[in-house]
Design a protein that fits this description.
This protein is mainly β. It has one domain: TolB, C-terminal domain (Neuraminidase). 9% of the residues lie in helices and 36% in strands. The protein has a 5-stranded mixed β-sheet, with no helix packed on it. It has a 4-stranded antiparallel β-sheet with strand order 2-27-26-25, with no helix packed on it. It has a 4-stranded antiparallel β-sheet with strand order 3-4-5-6, with no helix packed on it. Strand 8 and strand 9 form a beta hairpin. The longest helix has 35 residues. It is globular and about 55 Å long. It binds calcium ion. Calcium ion binds next to loops.
Length: 420
């Protein structure tokens, strides 16, 4: 090899090496950034023109059966909205939460809105004002509950607060903040979950993620002595916060608040009309999942991610006691599942009785009928609604059961309407 050729080869190797380092660094940075700050604060923005609301059917969706819908802008101008809940007793009213700590009432018929209340929320990463649930008897007692991350006793905590509205109407005056029902220290700013939901049993279900950061470093998912990585069940009406019939009451090494555990980040969940608790659990490396959560169950994280061994590629012993999801999807389809609701409205006939959900990162929406107990969703039973130019942080319902996508990216509420 001549000197000049050797020089060229050496230079080429150096250039390739530098390029490799740069590429590796970017990958590391991107991966690290996602894991450190979480999806809600990654600077993710809507891909494509947000005014174009036509669905696209790409990748696996191209071969799926479709349900023909269109998205109709029902409201806009919210700042990083993360939850939308109907106000009991007022079919035209919903409450919309902004991550930074502001709750708005919105009259969907009149198009009017106003500030309902505020909390002093931490807002880094996946922190914020993240969930609200109205008491099943809100029309008589004005009670509701919020979930936010705040600073208490010098620590970052998930706080579940009891409130009482005036005259059971968010439009009439400031609600009164009451007791702190739950205060759980958060080791990292991500994986706080955030939803609150009342079950058909009248109990309040509080999902908690594993606490962060990645790989569940404290082993919270598989530790029933930690509230993190669990679904909690609380009694907001009785003398005691913990229902006597919770599965782990009186069992040593288990927190009695826990209904089920082994969850990574149950960001959004809901109760189906048949009473089953449908949880969308956000994955880490390979798999997003929908799972039905029952009493006393272990859902596997971080021994499993979805229905695979974790870490990926490892061999893990069979553990029949771990509950597998009913549906999973891979990274090629999305990176952060947003759970929705079983559709009970009569606006979109084809969606009736289908669980509608989506992916925060890719803006894809899907639907399926919940399978019978113990069964999974068959591949030919998943319907594509399409991929849209939005970041669905949540789904919401109005008083008539119509369904909305909460778009974190542009601050819009988009009603799912029949296709044109
Ligand atoms: Ca956390």
């Amino acid at each position: 090899m001549s000197v000049s050729v050797r020089r060229i080869v050496t230079r080429a190797a150096v250039v390739l090496g530098v390029l490799g380092l740069v590429a590796g660094g970017l990958l590391l940075t991107e991966a690290g950034r996602r894991l450190l700050v979480g999806w809600l604060d990654t600077g993710y923005s809507v891909q494509g023109d947000p005014s174009d609301l036509r669905p696209r059917f790409e990748g696996a969706d191209a071969d799926r059966r479709r349900i023909d819908v269109r998205l109709v802008v029902a409201a806009e101008g919210f700042d990083q909205p993360v939850d939308m809940q109907p106000v009991p007793g007022h079919p035209e009213l919903v409450v919309v939460l902004e991550k930074k700590g502001v709750a708005w009432w919105l009259d969907l018929s009149a198009g009017t809105r106003g500030r309902f209340f505020e909390v002093d929320a931490l807002t880094a990463s996946e922190q914020g004002l993240l969930g609200i649930a109205f008491h099943p008897d809100f029309v008589n007692n004005g009670r509701f509950f919020t979930n936010h991350t705040g600073d208490a006793d010098g620590a970052e905590r998930t706080l579940v607060i009891a409130w009482r509205a005036q005259q059971s109407d968010p439009r009439k005056g400031e609600p009164k903040r009451g007791a702190t029902l739950l205060s759980v220290e958060q080791p990292y700013p991500n994986h706080n979950a955030g939803q609150l939901a009342f079950g058909p049993d009248g109990k309040l279900y509080v999902g908690l993620g594993d606490g962060g950061f990645k790989d569940d470093p404290h082993g919270n998912g598989q530790n029933p002595d930690s509230l993190l990585g669990s679904m909690l069940r609380l009694d907001v009406d009785g003398e005691a916060l913990v229902p006597a019939d919770n599965p782990f009451v009186g069992r040593p090494g288990h927190r009695p608040e826990i209904w089920a555990y082994g969850l990574r980040n149950p960001w959004r969940y809901s109760f189906a009309p048949d009473g089953r608790l449908v949880v969308a659990d956000v994955g880490q490396n390979t798999t997003e999942e929908v799972t039905i959560v029952g009493r006393g169950e272990n859902h596997g994280w971080a021994a499993r991610e979805g229905d695979h061994c974790f870490p990926p590629g490892t061999d893990c012993p069979p553990r029949p006691e771990l509950i597998d999801p009913i549906y999973t999807y891979p990274r090629s389809e999305g990176q952060s599942i947003t759970g929705g609701y079983v559709y009970t409205g009569d606006e979109v006939d084809a969606l009736h009785g289908h669980y509608v959900f989506g992916d925060f990162v890719t803006g894809r929406l899907w639907a399926f009928e919940l399978p019978p107990a113990g069964q999974t969703v068959q591949p030919d039973r998943i319907y594509a609604l399409g991929r849209f130019n939005l970041l669905p942080s949540a789904f919401g319902r109005d008083g008539d059961g119509r369904l909305y996508v909460v778009d974190y990216g542009t601050g819009r509420l988009l009603r799912i309407a029949p296709g044109a």
